[in-house]
């Protein structure tokens, strides 16, 4: 236990130095393996284990044993139980055991004015009954169904959080939390949950003023969602996955996406809750915009030019990602380690960098496990400043 506490202090210091603008002892590591990967790696049944969260500790423990990370390398925040109880259409368990997010339309195009006028009421009265069939009923039954789902949510997340605490203490992980809260960019919320990718793409051409106003109307709700319940701290961040921007024309990004997104990140930072952005797809044409975000915004990149990102953003923001998980599957062990060296040589100088992959490996066969272990072991033992 004493060794675990000492290790936790050392790992915590790595991330505090990074966030404080100091050079840490070595490159910090934070990789995350989702529940689906962890279940497969532990040799458990994908369908069964997601319904029985009492198995989580043993499943996640196996990941913690075998993969180097300075912060807890496992996470789970969506379970099928409460989605099934709600009759969810936006998150549906597939026959292969993976929770899918199909194209859904919770808001009709002709209902934009209702949403803009009062987004909260519109969500409660119109959108939720469309997305969750068990809420499309009389008031009494709706209340009962919602109570059942909320009880399931509390039970599942309670088991998960208790498991996280045990594993953090057992393995001596650092205390920074880059998933302390969760929210979405306002336009991403309108697209993902209200209008669908196809719908929002059409709307930007046909009713652009309403799309712009809807993103603005959603912004206070996204700010409120992102203010996680734990006390504000620069060492804990709100996670924001970014979706629509790479698929938009730059002029549309400037009008529909950027203003409300910037307002969201600035409001969170002002309240003491920095943002942890998953910069999905290719954002290279938007780097000058990203620079404008509050200092120490965490940005994990999926694609792009790490040299350019380091040059433009590395003095102000915290950078991660870029390591291709595809190489972990196709490359030799030495090729994988050499790629880690290459990326670290580009991004580590001056600090403000931690090692992570470009995306999470969702399936066990999406990476070569031995290559993955070797890369993480190399960073943990060789990537000293």
TrEMBL record:
The record's InterPro entries line, in alphabetical order, gives: UROD/MetE-like_sf (IPR038071)
Say which domain of life the source belongs to: Bacteria
* Full protein name: Uroporphyrinogen decarboxylase (URO-D)
Q: Which organism is it from?
A: Desulfotruncus arcticus DSM 17038
């Amino acid at each position: 236990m004493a060794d675990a506490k000492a290790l936790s202090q050392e790992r915590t210091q790595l991330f505090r130095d990074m966030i404080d603008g100091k050079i840490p002892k070595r490159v910090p590591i934070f990789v995350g393996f989702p529940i689906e990967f962890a279940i497969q790696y532990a040799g458990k049944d994908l369908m069964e284990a997601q319904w029985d969260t009492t198995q989580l500790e043993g499943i996640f423990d196996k990941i913690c044993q075998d993969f180097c990370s300075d912060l807890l390398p496992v996470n789970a925040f969506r379970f099928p139980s409460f989605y099934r109880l709600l009759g969810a259409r936006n998150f549906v368990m597939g026959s292969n055991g993976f929770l899918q997010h199909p194209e859904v339309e919770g808001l009709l195009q002709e209902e934009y004015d209702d949403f803009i006028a009062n987004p909260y009421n519109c969500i409660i009265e119109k959108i939720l009954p469309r997305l969750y069939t068990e809420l499309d009923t009389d008031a009494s039954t709706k209340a009962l169904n919602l109570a059942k789902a909320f009880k399931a949510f509390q039970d599942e997340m309670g088991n998960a959080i208790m498991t996280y605490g045990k594993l953090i203490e057992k393995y001596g992980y650092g205390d920074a939390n880059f998933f302390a809260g969760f929210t979405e960019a306002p336009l991403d919320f309108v697209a993902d949950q209200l209008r669908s990718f196809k719908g929002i793409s059409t709307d930007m051409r046909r009713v652009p003023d309403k799309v712009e106003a809807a993103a603005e109307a959603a912004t206070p709700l996204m700010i409120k969602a992102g203010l996680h319940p734990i006390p504000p701290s620069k060492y804990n961040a709100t996670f924001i996955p970014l979706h629509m921007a790479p698929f938009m024309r730059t002029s549309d990004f400037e009008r529909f996406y950027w203003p409300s997104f910037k307002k969201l990140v600035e409001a969170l930072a002002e309240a003491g809750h920095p943002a942890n952005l998953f910069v999905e797809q290719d954002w290279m044409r938007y780097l000058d915009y990203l620079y404008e975000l509050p200092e120490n915004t965490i940005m994990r990149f999926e694609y792009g030019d790490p040299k350019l990102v380091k040059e433009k953003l590395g003095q102000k923001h915290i950078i991660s990602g870029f390591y291709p998980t595809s190489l972990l599957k196709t490359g030799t062990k030495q090729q994988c380690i050499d790629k880690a060296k290459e990326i670290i040589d580009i991004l580590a100088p001056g600090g403000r960098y931690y090692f992570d992959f470009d995306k999470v490996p969702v399936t066990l066969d999406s990476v070569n496990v031995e290559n993955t272990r070797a890369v993480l072991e190399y960073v943990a033992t060789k990537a000293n400043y």
